[in-house]
Design brief:
Two copies of one chain form a homodimer. By secondary structure, chain A is mainly alpha-helical. Helix content of chain A is 68%, strand content 0%. The longest helix of chain A has 27 residues. The structure holds a DNA duplex.
DNA sequence: CAATTTCGATACGCTCCCGTAGCGAAACTG
DNA sequence: CAGTTTCGCTACGGGAGCGTATCGAAATTG
């Protein structure tokens, strides 16, 4: 459905004037930089013009207002976290969570997401985009987990929406809300805590060392 | 440690001039309204003055700049989610999560939190406050869970930080990041999924109906 | 009641940013 | 190569908001 919008913005229209494409790319790059450095309040049309070297007039030719530029900028930063397919489900998921965690803390995606949270609260377009990007971002993970259900690694009646929430929710929560650290230890314990009872019910019985004592 | 700041702002100093107290309260109330309605960009000193009826000059007498007003406004909205202490741990936690979920979606706290996420990214004070408020907010839940560990309801080696993350993380995530619904069904399944393997390991073995099929 | 504190109101200069207009130059298209 | 499109540049009027200064009125304190 509204995934069309995303595609539409990433790949230019069929045979667009290269000058148009190039100036847009430069403006978006500058917008991302500005958002990284000074947050939402740092993104102004004039600042983007100065930073990108593209004339203010030209920017207005492609973006209606600041919100649209903001939306496009957030949309332009990708979030690609690979998902491995080995025989070890827990290791694959742990790898994914580690990758996601890194992206949230070190990449443009993580930096711009905080500015989008604010925007989504009062803009229908933003809210829709947040939702779409989320769906897209979780797709690989979702497929991996569905595969695990198919081959019997996970119980057939597991709720994937809940499961995914348990895996990625805490990472986002600690990054943006509670602002707590999430080192490798935390990620490992999280994944283990979520998946161990599912993949090997026997281990959920007592203190087996698979569920350690405390995380930092 | 820095919890001092919170207390300091909520309760007025010893024998403060009542005029000062009253005007501050009115300004903060107006600031909360403005943040609710128009987000961070809606909060300006002049708008707060107009809305509250307090003169702009007076506002500057108590708040250094807009950021400080924003910080105080966010700080002024409480987030009190009660935690029950019955013999049924799962029910108690489910009740808490339901309450938290409601607060996130309907209260001032939920509305202002999104503006704070943005601010915390570039302000040390904001980041510290977010952390402190989080600690304070999770305290009751943490105590309840510690009690459950003490009386043997939960295994002694459970990682409370991870556990709490699994419980509240998904609620925040779906509210602010992925913008997905979290109805009563989702909350119930989440709590069940997290706690069932811990409180009653036997039930984690197969499809017992305690881990339903899909959530909306 | 007298001294102190805080208040409201007004006015001000200043900066930043908006969004539009007009132009000739440069780049692209067919 | 001729026509079209996009560009960069400059300039402009206007609004919003900042942060400060001043000053008389009102409330509080002791």
């Amino acid at each position: 459905m509204s995934t069309v919008r995303v595609t539409e913005m990433l790949s230019a229209a069929v045979h667009e004037d290269p000058r148009r494409t190039k100036s847009r790319a430069r403006v978006l790059a500058a917008a991302v930089e500005l958002l990284r450095e000074d947050g939402l309040s740092g993104l102004t049309i004039e600042a983007a013009a100065a930073r990108s070297g593209v004339a203010k007039t030209t920017i207005y030719r492609q973006f209606a207002d600041r919100d649209e530029l903001h939306l496009s900028a957030v949309n332009s930063v990708g979030c690609h976290v690979p998902v491995a397919y080995t025989v070890d489900l827990v290791a694959d998921i742990a790898s994914f969570c580690t990758g996601l965690n890194t992206v949230l803390r070190d990449s443009d995606f993580g930096a711009l997401l905080s500015t989008a949270v604010d925007g989504a609260e009062r803009s229908e377009s933003f809210a829709a985009m947040m939702h779409d990007v989320g769906v897209q971002r979780r797709q690989l993970l979702s497929e991996r987990l569905r595969g695990a259900v198919s081959d019997g690694t996970l119980p057939h009646d597991v709720d994937l929406e809940v499961l995914i929430g348990q895996l990625v929710g805490p990472l986002f929560y600690r990054r943006f809300i509670s602002r707590q650290a999430t080192g490798p230890t935390f990620v490992a314990r999280l994944v283990s805590s979520v998946l161990t009872p599912l993949v090997d019910p026997a281990r959920a019985s007592s203190g087996s060392g698979a569920r350690p004592r405390s995380a930092r």
